[in-house]
Write a structure and sequence with these properties.
The protein is built from 13 helices and 11 strands. It is α/β, with parallel strands linked by helices.
C-alpha cells in the first residue's frame, strides 16, 4: 500500500502493523443535497397542523427534531438525541445484534411519545448506513413498526449526501467558488464537491439550497450549482474504529485510520487534480467536527451558537487532535467536552478530519452543527410550500 500521507507518518512507530480490509467506496453517477436553519424555540404552543418531524437513525445515534416553519427557516419545538450504538458488532457479524436493536427500539418509543404529545402528522423517519449494510436491516425496520408503530425508511447514500449539503447552505460564503461538504457519520462518510464559480456571488448559498430537488435537477432560469462528484465511503467513526480495534497503541491506531481513510478516497474525482486555493471552502458536519470545535473554544458546556459557523484553521484542528492523543483513552473519557459516550469514537472521527484537511488546498474548515434532520425538515417544508423565499 502507498504511504503517501504526509505528516501522519510521524505518529507511527516502527512496530505498528495493520491488516486492512479493502472496502471500495460507492461512487454513483449522479449527486444530491438538502439544508436547514434553526432559530430559537417557539414561545407559544404551536398548532399541530404546522408541525414537522425528522428522525435520523444512524450507526451510532438516534436523533429527532420537531419544528414549525418560520419565514425561510424554522423553530425547533422539541428534540431527542441518544447514542444507541445500533451498528455495534456489525463489522464482524454483518448483522444488527439483538442488544443493539433493543436499545434502539427503546429510543424509538421515546420518539413516538414525543410525536404523539405534540400531535405531529407530517414526518419523515430515516435510517442510514447500519440498516443499509446489515443482512437483517429490513427485518429490523419491520420490528420497529410492530413494536412502536413508527415506519422507518432506509435511504440511499445519494439522498443522505443531498440532505447534508442543503443543511449547510446558509454557511456557504459568497466568495466560495469550489465547495466541499463533508458529513462524517457513524457508518459512512459522504463527500460532495460542488462548483459554484458560474453562480453570481450573492446567489451562491441559494444555489446550494436548490439542490434539494436532486444533484442533477434542472434549475430552471436560475444559475446552477454543479455537482462535480460525490462519494459515500463506507467508513464512519464507528466502522473505521472497528477496522483497527486490534491495534493497541493509541497514536499508531490514529495514524493508520487516517491513512486508510485517505486510501479510500483515491477514486474521488476532485482529489486527482490540483485545486486552486482561492475560493475553496470545506464545510464539515458531524459530532466529530462540533466536538473538535468545542474543544478548541474551551467550552465547559456545549453552545451551538458559538460552534455553528465557526471557522477553524488546520493548525487549530491539529492542536486539538494532538491534545486528544496526549490525553489518551482515559483522559479523553474524563474530558467533559468529549464525554464517555463519544470518547471511543472521537479519534476515528479526528483521523477522518485530519485526512481531509491534508488532501485539499485550504487551511480552514467551516463547522456546521446541522445535518440530516435539518435537511429532512427543509425538504418536507419546501415540498409543502410553507417556507418563504427570503434571502440569506
Amino acid at each position: 500500500m502507498s504511504l503517501a500521507w504526509g505528516g501522519v507518518r510521524a505518529y507511527l512507530g516502527d512496530n505498528s502493523k495493520s491488516e486492512g480490509v479493502t472496502m471500495a467506496p460507492m461512487r454513483p453517477h449522479g449527486a444530491g443535497a438538502f439544508p436547514k436553519a434553526v432559530v430559537t424555540p417557539a414561545p407559544n404552543a404551536p398548532d399541530p397542523a404546522q408541525l414537522y418531524a425528522a428522525l435520523d437513525l444512524g450507526t451510532n445515534s438516534c436523533r429527532m427534531l420537531i419544528a414549525q416553519p418560520k419565514g425561510s427557516q424554522f423553530h425547533v419545538i422539541d428534540s431527542f438525541s441518544k447514542s444507541v450504538q445500533l451498528g455495534q458488532g456489525l463489522e464482524s457479524s454483518g448483522k444488527l445484534s439483538r442488544a443493539s436493536m433493543n436499545r434502539t427500539i427503546q429510543a424509538m418509543r421515546i420518539c413516538r411519545q414525543k410525536l404523539e404529545r405534540h400531535g405531529v402528522k407530517r414526518m419523515r423517519l430515516v435510517a442510514t448506513e447500519a440498516c443499509r449494510r446489515a443482512r437483517n436491516g429490513a427485518n429490523f425496520i419491520a420490528q420497529v413498526r410492530r413494536e412502536t408503530g413508527l415506519q422507518l425508511e432506509i435511504i440511499k447514500p445519494e439522498e443522505e449526501a443531498r440532505l447534508a449539503v442543503i443543511s449547510c447552505a446558509p454557511l456557504v460564503s459568497t466568495k466560495t467558488e469550489q465547495l466541499l461538504v463533508v458529513d462524517i457519520g457513524g457508518g459512512s462518510t459522504e463527500l460532495v464537491w460542488i462548483d459554484i464559480s458560474h453562480v453570481p456571488a450573492r446567489e451562491r448559498p441559494r444555489a446550494i439550497m436548490r439542490l434539494h430537488a436532486g444533484f442533477v435537477a434542472d434549475p430552471g432560469p436560475f444559475a446552477a450549482a454543479k455537482v462535480v462528484d460525490w462519494i459515500s465511503v463506507p467508513l464512519g467513526v464507528a466502522t473505521l474504529r472497528d477496522q483497527f480495534a486490534d491495534v493497541d497503541d493509541d497514536a499508531a491506531r490514529f495514524a493508520l485510520m487516517s491513512w486508510f481513510f485517505e486510501e479510500n478516497l483515491s477514486d474521488f474525482a476532485p482529489s486527482a487534480a490540483e485545486q486552486a486555493r482561492d475560493g475553496f471552502q470545506i464545510i464539515g458536519t458531524s459530532g466529530t467536527v462540533t466536538t473538535v470545535a468545542a474543544s478548541h473554544l474551551g467550552l465547559k458546556r456545549y453552545d451551538r451558537t458559538k460552534v455553528d459557523g465557526l471557522r477553524m484553521t488546520s493548525d487549530q484542528i491539529d492542536a486539538v487532535i494532538r491534545g486528544y492523543l496526549k490525553l489518551g483513552p482515559d483522559g479523553r473519557r474524563d474530558d467533559p467536552r468529549i464525554g464517555r459516550d463519544r470518547q471511543a469514537l472521537i479519534m476515528s472521527g479526528a483521523a477522518i478530519l485530519q485526512a481531509l484537511m491534508r488532501l485539499w488546498p485550504t487551511d480552514r474548515l467551516s463547522v456546521a452543527d446541522r445535518g440530516l434532520r435539518e435537511g429532512l425538515l427543509y425538504a418536507q417544508m419546501s415540498a409543502d410550500g410553507v417556507l418563504e423565499d427570503a434571502p440569506y
